[in-house]
Design goal:
Layout: H1 3-9, E1 12-23, E2 28-30, H2 34-41, E3 47-56, E4 58-62, E5 69-72, E6 76-79, E7 86-89, E8 100-101, E9 128-138, H3 143-147, E10 154-156, H4 161-178, H5 184-207, H6 216-219, H7 221-232, H8 240-247, H9 251-262, H10 266-284, H11 289-295, H12 301-312, H13 316-332
Parallel strand pairs: 2-8
Antiparallel strand pairs: 1-9, 2-7, 3-6, 3-9, 4-5, 4-7, 6-10
Length: about 325
């Protein structure tokens, strides 16, 4: 079973913003903290991903604790965990520039880039044009574990088939976001979801070559088989002993491998996966709580209520009443 596809299907778009920035010479900016952007787009957001496509010129990108990468026209950089990052003009002393702190409210109207004394472009100080996208999701139980330990950003070079597809996708989202027409929000939503899937497929492919990546979850056949069992039939009355026996390990061996690969014990992962599926059902269907509880593996509505409240802080009925109108409003926009 394709566990990654199963996880991606459980993710729900909560908000996105696309903008184009013309960045003159002697510039440097730092993006807002990911939690601030998620709160700005939707308080329901749990995962943020950032994309930058250079359409003209050159620039540098880096994080506070990571090395820099140079980007040219046609290149894209992808931040799968939405980490705060810097973009700056190439061919300049960036250490002497004060980084402009972008505010979340600027994301709706573009970034106001300050200029530092250079009044005209030279051969070495030319403007860069960058299309930026920030996409937020909720759900996707297991994706955060997949991302942990993998590269914090990934450059997708010009000429790559995915880079071209993402270029068209981002410019389409930018155009649709700039105009208010029938169905524009649906177009942006669907493309944003596809961008996530395509970027993650590329990301996973690249990360498989990195020693020590959390993608040992894909290479450890025992953990992979355990995940497949839980995803194929989440409602089954699983125990660690049953899963361990099914994959050919002892209980302690499976638990150790699972924690090493996923970051949490098998049963904790299963509970969170069940609750993630239940949350999707609460928003997407009119099924009663007892029906949803049974579908995700709870024998009683009471035990389902307790598990859901531990994860979300409120009972499922109250969560549905709170969240469903917001989702319906976003779909109508």
């Amino acid at each position: 079973m394709d566990v990654l596809a199963d996880i991606l299907r459980s993710m729900r778009l909560t908000g996105s913003v696309f903008l184009e920035s013309e960045l003159r010479s002697q510039w440097c900016y730092v993006s807002p903290a990911p939690q601030a952007i998620m709160d700005f787009l939707s308080p329901r957001s749990e995962i943020l991903m950032a994309f930058h496509l250079v359409t003209e010129g050159q620039c540098l990108a880096w994080m506070r604790d990571g090395g820099e990468v140079e980007l040219s026209a046609g290149d894209m950089i992808f931040f799968p965990q939405g980490d705060s990052h810097f973009l700056a003009g190439s061919g300049q002393d960036n250490e002497r520039l004060r980084a402009i702190e972008v505010k979340c409210e600027n994301l709706r109207s573009g970034i106001d880039v300050q200029r530092y004394g250079v009044k005209k472009e030279t051969q070495f100080d030319r403007a860069a044009k960058v299309v930026c996208g920030f996409v937020a999701f909720e759900g996707g139980q297991g994706l955060s574990s997949l991302l942990t330990g993998m590269p914090r950003f990934l450059r997708i070079p010009r000429g790559d088939a995915l880079a071209e597809w993402l270029r068209v996708s981002m410019t389409t989202c930018l155009a649709e976001s700039a105009c208010v027409t029938v169905g524009s929000s649906v177009v942006v939503q669907r493309i944003s979801e596809l961008m996530l899937v395509e970027a993650m497929r590329y990301y996973v492919k690249e990360a498989e070559r990195i020693k020590g990546s959390i993608l040992l979850v894909s290479n450890d056949r025992f953990v992979q088989r355990a995940l497949s069992l839980m995803h194929q039939d989440p409602a089954a009355p699983w125990t660690v002993e049953q899963i361990a026996k099914a994959v050919g390990l002892s209980r302690s061996a499976l638990a150790g491998r699972f924690v090493a690969s996923i970051g949490e014990p098998p049963m904790q992962y299963l509970v969170r996966w069940r609750i993630s599926l239940a949350a999707s059902a609460l928003l997407a269907t009119e099924d009663c709580l007892a029906q949803i509880a049974a579908k995700v593996g709870y024998e009683s509505e009471t035990s389902f209520n307790r598990a859901f409240k531990r994860e979300f802080g409120i009972p499922p009925a109250a969560w549905r009443k709170q969240e469903k109108p917001m989702v319906q409003h976003e779909r109508r926009r």
